């Protein structure tokens, strides 16, 4: 028998967890940033069809390109991480399974994001 | 429906929605589900982005292989799927941003913007591939 009020039971769980508002807000900010960034990226990828390594290095090394690439990678993987977190929290209910998949999602997005950042920086600044 | 009026009984009798077996599909619900599916597909697809960028960091041979792989029929199939998923998620994402601002909730408007999302994502996908094939000299 739980003597706590329904409000007390709900506090700290689900949407009442701390950080819900900032999660929501950050996801909106990254969506907004990704609209122009992804449109730019699609055009960029088309321009790189058939490009050899030299052409790719020259493109990444332009200051504007590098800035946009870094912004795209950070927004993209942050947005991906937050979106996948919501999907996992919505559909996986067992606490152990949820935690396992959440850790896997975090690993995927952080490794992917950092690997992409290191790759473009290495291409731009040489090894 | 249960007539059990204990707190547990009331909790059990709460309607569950949507009940997928009898839930009538509507453009609003289908597009909403697609938004998530495309988001998940795009997330998984970033594996190819990471591969492509990392290959460039490894050097000319690795990048050449990556370019060749992305240009193969399988690579192109992946990119075609990613192109549609991206434009769909982007267009419907803009629709979501308008909702977040409190705009566009009326049913006729919801249907109209839904149709705009489908048509524009298909159109942008076609446009992207026409430009890409022209650029590659295939068209």
Q: What are the salient characteristics of this protein?
A:
heterodimer, A: 127 residues, mainly alpha, 3 helical TM bundles of succinate and fumarate reductases, 80% helix, 0% strand, elongated, B: 139 residues, 5 helices, 78% helix
Tell me what the structure shows:
The complex is a heterodimer of chains A (127) and B (139). Helix content of chain A is 80%, strand content 0%. Chain A has 127 residues and is mainly α. Chain A has one domain (6-125): Fumarate reductase/succinate dehydrogenase, transmembrane subunit (3 helical TM bundles of succinate and fumarate reductases, Up-down Bundle), CATH 1.20.1300.10. Chain A is elongated and about 70 Å long. The mean pLDDT of chain A is 93. Chain B has one domain: Fumarate reductase/succinate dehydrogenase, transmembrane subunit (3 helical TM bundles of succinate and fumarate reductases), CATH 1.20.1300. Chain B is built from five helices and no strands. The longest helix of chain B has 32 residues, at 27-58. Chain B has 139 residues and is mostly helical. The model of chain B has no long low-confidence stretch (mean pLDDT 92). In chain B, α2 runs antiparallel to α3. The chains are: A mainly alpha (127), B mainly alpha (139). The interface between A and B is medium-sized, with 36 and 32 residues.
Strand coverage percent of chain A: under 5%
Morphology call of chain A: elongated
Q: How much of the polypeptide of chain B forms β-strand, as a percent range?
A: under 5%
Task: Specify the CATH class of chain B.
Answer: Mainly Alpha
- Total beta-strand segments of chain B: 0
CATH class of chain A: Mainly Alpha
Low-confidence sequence ranges of chain A: none
Uncertain regions of chain B: pLDDT < 50 for 5+ in a row?
none
Instruction: Identify the most extensive interface between protein chains.
Output: A-B, 36 and 32 residues
CATH superfamily of chain B: Fumarate reductase/succinate dehydrogenase, transmembrane subunit
CATH architectural designation of chain A = Up-down Bundle
Topology order of chain B in helix (H) and strand (E) letters? HHHHH
CATH topology of chain B: 3 helical TM bundles of succinate and fumarate reductases
CATH topology of chain A: 3 helical TM bundles of succinate and fumarate reductases
Q: Roughly what is the average pLDDT of chain A, rounded to an integer?
A: 93
């Amino acid at each position: 028998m739980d003597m706590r009020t329904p409000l007390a039971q709900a506090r700290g769980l689900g949407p009442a967890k701390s950080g819900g508002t900032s999660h929501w807000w950050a996801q909106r900010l990254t969506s907004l940033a990704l609209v122009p960034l992804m449109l730019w990226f699609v055009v960029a990828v088309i321009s790189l069809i058939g490009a050899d390594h030299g052409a790719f290095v020259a493109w990444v090394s332009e200051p504007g390109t590098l800035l946009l690439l870094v912004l795209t990678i950070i927004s993209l993987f942050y947005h991906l991480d937050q979106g996948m977190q919501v999907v996992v929290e919505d559909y996986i209910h067992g606490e152990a399974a949820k935690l396992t998949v959440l850790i896997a999602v975090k690993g995927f997005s952080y490794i992917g994001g950092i690997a992409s950042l290191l790759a473009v920086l290495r291409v731009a600044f040489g090894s | 429906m249960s007539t059990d009026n204990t707190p547990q009984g009331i909790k059990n009798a709460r309607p569950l929605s949507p009940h997928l077996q009898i839930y009538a599909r509507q453009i609003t619900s289908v597009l909403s589900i697609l938004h998530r599916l495309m988001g998940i597909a795009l997330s998984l697809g970033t594996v190819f982005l990471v591969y492509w960028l990392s290959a460039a960091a490894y050097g000319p041979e690795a990048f050449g292989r990556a370019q060749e792989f992305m240009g193969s029929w399988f690579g192109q199939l992946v990119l075609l799927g990613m192109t549609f998923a991206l434009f769909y998620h982007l267009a419907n994402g803009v629709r979501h941003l308008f909702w977040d601002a409190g705009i566009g909730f009326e049913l006729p408007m919801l249907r109209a913007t839904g149709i705009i999302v489908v048509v524009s994502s298909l159109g942008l996908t076609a446009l992207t591939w026409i430009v890409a094939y022209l650029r590659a000299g295939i068209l």
